[in-house]
Amino acid sequence: MKIFHVDSSAKRERSNSRTLSRQFIDNLRSEGVDVEVDYLDVTADTPAHVTEAFAIATYREAEERTDEMRATLAASDALCKRLFEADAFVFAMPMYNWSMPSAFKAFIDNITRAGITYKTTEDGRIVGQLSRQKVLFITTRGADLRPGNVFSSMDALTPALKAAFGFIGVDDPTFVDAQPLQFSDQEARVEALKRAQADLAAVASEWAAWERERTGSEQLETA
Ligand SMILES: Cc1cc2nc3c(=O)[nH]c(=O)nc-3n(C[C@H](O)[C@H](O)[C@H](O)COP(=O)(O)O)c2cc1C
């Protein structure tokens, strides 16, 4: 299984989202999945913010683009290619000010591409092109935003991710949200991490079953 693994915490060794995403890949390997990872740290290799040149080039028909426009879109094209080459995505991120880290938003701005990750049919319907892949979002939050808590109405992260990725074809992503990891007592933080680790182990086992089914049917087709 080829996984496109993206981390986006500003923290490094101290980062919970990085630790959890690494543990998830280890879980998959322990389940016997043959994992190949394409890794991107958007805090080190941050995709460019949208520029005027990008905003014009991205909506121009491919055959009408100048060489300069093609050069403007080259890095975004390359990111899209990495998505299509993967069987699954693992996107890990902390919540920053109720939404996503800006480096991950820049990533989304680069991979939401007309004619590539979404296409428009003749009758005007949008068809997202990334419906083949399994998708896991691992989010870490300082507060507890689960239903019934004071901050539960402040979650602008989950709907933003669902909308952006739904548009490009991801209709059933899995979310593992570790919370509260900062603004709480030690006991609640430890419990939150344990819950997330247990959830990730369950997701890994589900993905392993999917992989066995997928590769098994591929083998049958080629037999
Ligand atoms: C700049 C910044 C903004 C944050 N904003 C929020 C927030 O709006 N809500 C929240 O619950 N936690 C917030 N946090 C806390 C982090 O989401 C939390 O500590 C998380 O576990 C960090 O993940 P990491 O360890 O992978 O960096 C913020 C942290 C930072 C550094």
From TrEMBL:
Q: So what does this thing catalyse? A: 2 a quinone + NADH + H(+) = 2 a 1,4-benzosemiquinone + NAD(+); N,N-dimethyl-1,4-phenylenediamine + anthranilate + 2 NAD(+) = 2-(4-dimethylaminophenyl)diazenylbenzoate + 2 NADH + 2 H(+)
The note describing how and how many cofactors are bound reads: Binds 1 FMN per subunit.
InterPro entries attached here?
Flavodoxin_fold, Flavoprotein-like_sf, FMN-dep_NADH:Q_OxRdtase_AzoR1, NADH:quinone_OxRdtase_FMN_depd
Gene3D superfamilies assigned:
3.40.50.360
EC number(s) on file: 1.6.5.-, 1.7.1.17
**Required cofactor names:** FMN
Where's the Flavodoxin-like fold domain? 1-198
The record's GO molecular-function terms, alphabetically, read:
electron transfer activity; FMN binding; oxidoreductase activity, acting on NAD(P)H as acceptor; oxidoreductase activity, acting on NAD(P)H, quinone or similar compound as acceptor
Q: Which domain of life is it from?
A: Bacteria
Which top EC class applies here?
A: oxidoreductase
Chain sites annotated for binding FMN: S9, S15, N16, S17
What does the protein in this record do?
Answer: Quinone reductase that provides resistance to thiol-specific stress caused by electrophilic quinones. Also exhibits azoreductase activity. Catalyzes the reductive cleavage of the azo bond in aromatic azo compounds to the corresponding amines.
In terms of PANTHER family, this protein maps to: FMN-DEPENDENT NADH-AZOREDUCTASE 1, FMN-DEPENDENT NADH:QUINONE OXIDOREDUCTASE
Question: What is stated as this protein's family in its record?
Answer: Belongs to the azoreductase type 1 family.
Q: What name has this protein been given in UniProt?
A: FMN dependent NADH:quinone oxidoreductase
Which organism is this protein's natural source?
Paraburkholderia piptadeniae
Gene symbol here is azoR
